[in-house]
Amino acid sequence: MGQSESKEVANDGKYAELRRLAEQKGPVAMSKYLQENIQKWKEEKVKFAVTGRSATGKSTFINKIRNVKPRDPGYAKSGSGNTTKEPTPYQNPQNQLIVFYDLPGIGTLQFPKETYVSKMELCKYDYFFIFFDKVVNEDENFLICELLKLEKSYCLIRSKIDDDIRNAEDDGRTEEEVIPAIRQQINDQILCYSHLNHCDAIFLISSKRKDIGN
Ligand SMILES: Nc1nc2c(ncn2[C@@H]2O[C@H](COP(=O)(O)OP(=O)(O)OP(=O)(O)O)[C@@H](O)[C@H]2O)c(=O)[nH]1
Ligand SMILES: [Mg+2]
């Protein structure tokens, strides 16, 4: 086995089958196998969990990406905190196999972090969007550690960037200064705690203003 092949790839059942075909049956059988399997991802159901503290904008984000307005059917209720009371699935209108699960906020009195992982059945989701609206705090830290134990992947979503821009403008700073400063602050925080480094990406978003975010 070549040195560049990762353990993950080497342990993958489909990869092993491909190797076997290549070695025993040759390129025609290999090509047939690839053609049969390459489209299979399109038939897979993907469950995205949208999680994080209460009132960080999880439900609002789900409405935004689904382009659903307050009086439309399937609108995820948003509010000023403790709004989402149970994990609720929302299908992506472009692909019904992609489902966003709107989760209650972690670390509230109703959903303390100690029981959140089991109550929310975090093990059943494929990927996690972890929302936070100022700095990564103890609750996100806890969540990330638990996801690492479950070997789940996640990205971090710093929400409500429009609020930061508005506040900064009141303080005499510009949008061009504020966004890189927030990103830098998050990166600095992540560098200090090695386990936070596992996140796939950090997005800065606003569900209220389409023109900002990166
Ligand atoms: N300024 C601003 N406000 C936002 C944004 N996203 C959400 N909000 C507001 O933040 C509040 C909380 O939003 P929700 O979507 O209910 O937050 P949540 O994370 O689902 O909250 P829980 O269901 O309680 O966990 C609402 O008043 C939203 O209008 C944003 O990008 N910018
Ligand atoms: Mg909600």
Number of domains: 2
CATH architecture of the largest domain: 3-Layer(aba) Sandwich
Average pLDDT confidence is: 91
CATH superfamily annotation of the largest domain:
P-loop containing nucleotide triphosphate hydrolases
| Backbone shape | globular
The bound ligands are: guanosine-5'-triphosphate, magnesium ion
Record field, number of beta strands: 6
Cα distance spanning the termini = 40 Å
Largest sheet data: 6 strands, mixed
Bin the helical content: 25-40%
Write a concise synopsis of the structure shown.
The protein has helices spanning 7-11, 13-24, 27-37, 58-66, 113-119, 138-149, 161-170, 175-192, and strands at 46-52, 88-92, 95-102, 127-132, 153-158, 202-204. By secondary structure, it is of the alpha/beta class.
Structural description of this entry:
The chain has 2 domains: 7-42, no CATH class; 44-204, Rossmann fold (3-Layer(aba) Sandwich), CATH 3.40.50.300. The two termini are 40 Å apart. With 214 residues, it is an alpha/beta fold. It has helices at 7-11, 13-24, 27-37, 58-66, 113-119, 138-149, 161-170, 175-192, and strands at residues 46-52, 88-92, 95-102, 127-132, 153-158, 202-204. Helix 6 (138-149) links the parallel strand 4 (127-132) and strand 5 (153-158). The chain has a 6-stranded mixed β-sheet with strand order 2-3-1-4-5-6, sandwiched between helices. It is 39% helix and 16% strand. The relative contact order is 0.12. Helix 2 runs antiparallel to helix 3. The model has no long low-confidence stretch (mean pLDDT 91). The structure holds guanosine-5'-triphosphate (GTP) and magnesium ion (MG). Guanosine-5'-triphosphate binds next to helix 4 and helix 7. Magnesium ion binds at residues 58-59, 83-84, 102.
